[in-house]
Amino acid sequence: MISETLVKAFVKDSENTNDESVRNRYGFLAGAVGIASNLVLFIVKFSIGFLSGSVAVTADAFNNFTDMASSIITIAGFKLAGMPADEEHPFGHGRLEYISALVVAFMVMFVGAQFTKTSVERIMNPSPIEFQTIPFVLLLLSIAVKLWLSVFNKYIGNKIDSSALKAVAMDALGDVFTSSCVVISFLAARFTDLPIDGYVGVAVSLAILYAGFSLVKETINPLLGEAPDPEIVSKITENLMKYEIITGVHDLIIHNYGVGRCIASVHAEVPADIDVMDIHEVIDDAEKEISEKMNIHLVIHMDPICLKDEELNEARAEIEDIISAREELKSIHDLRIVGKGERKNLVFDVVVDPAMVSHKEDDNIKKWIDSEMKKRHGKYNCIIVIDRDYSGNQ
């Protein structure tokens, strides 16, 4: 396979993708291949468009030109993202890779907008296109090149988990579609005098705009703070639950500072009757072992839970039964009883589905749970904290 051959030839220690220098070499290789391929395609298509007078071919040529520029920006993004942490950026510069991809996305959209205008003008003021066999064959070859570029970038993007390169792969695949449309218009010129070129040019331009919009959405989400990958959430939870003294986890928060730069914090429930030094030792081991295994920085807060208190267990069962009646209420944690005698406080957190519950509804939920609990046990006063699952693991 050509992709694997190129990787073996130009990426030293290619299997060690967790190494930042190896990952950067992958990015530079993808960028260099993209620059070379798109430069050739731009020259070929621009020449064809100029000789044939086809605005659709010219639009497709400049799409390749922006792809070449995007490869340059991608290389710069990898270089800048690989800079070490400093005083102002203690978690490194990994998000610059997302910013470089965002710049590329806006470039794609700009080109799409420009050629939409040009194509509409061609429809309003049509001019003949002369069909030529050699340019037509060269366009077919360009489709084959773009298809391979898509496969190549997807291969490397998956190899190093790069959203930027995966987006470039999708963009290249979109170019296969747009170039195919150009070929159709070029062929149709032999059989009709209608301004097919302009109409196909509009279709190509709109496809470019859509690709640009998709790239913006793809790259802006991690910058805005999207929910973490459910697989990562699941793996962290599963690894924590392998430790015998950890009985439950909650409040998992994951921050993404670029690929390979995830910082996570979580609360781990542990039995309250175990010596605190023994618990601390297990928690320290868990932080170190899971961080190394998953290539993240994990911080664990331990929450002591009374597992043998009969009154507490009965209260927990009652509360869980109450919240089970409402779909938006997911679970409870950090339950404790404060006070003595006939009047006691039940203090706990309720996890809600953020997609179903706004902050304005928090007080109503607290009052409803407290009211339902008082119907069953008048001696309890519920002091509730509304908690939201920021892991997206609903």
From TrEMBL:
List residues traversing the bilayer: 26-48, 98-116, 136-156, 168-192, 198-216
Q: What is its main location?
A: membrane
Question: Where would one find the signal peptide in this protein?
Answer: none
Q: Does this entry carry the keyword Nucleotidyltransferase? A: no
Q: SUPFAM superfamilies, per this entry?
A: Cation efflux protein cytoplasmic domain-like, Cation efflux protein transmembrane domain-like
Single annotated GO MF: monoatomic cation transmembrane transporter activity
Q: Which family does it belong to?
A: Belongs to the cation diffusion facilitator (CDF) transporter (TC 2.A.4) family.
Q: What is this protein called?
A: Cation transporter
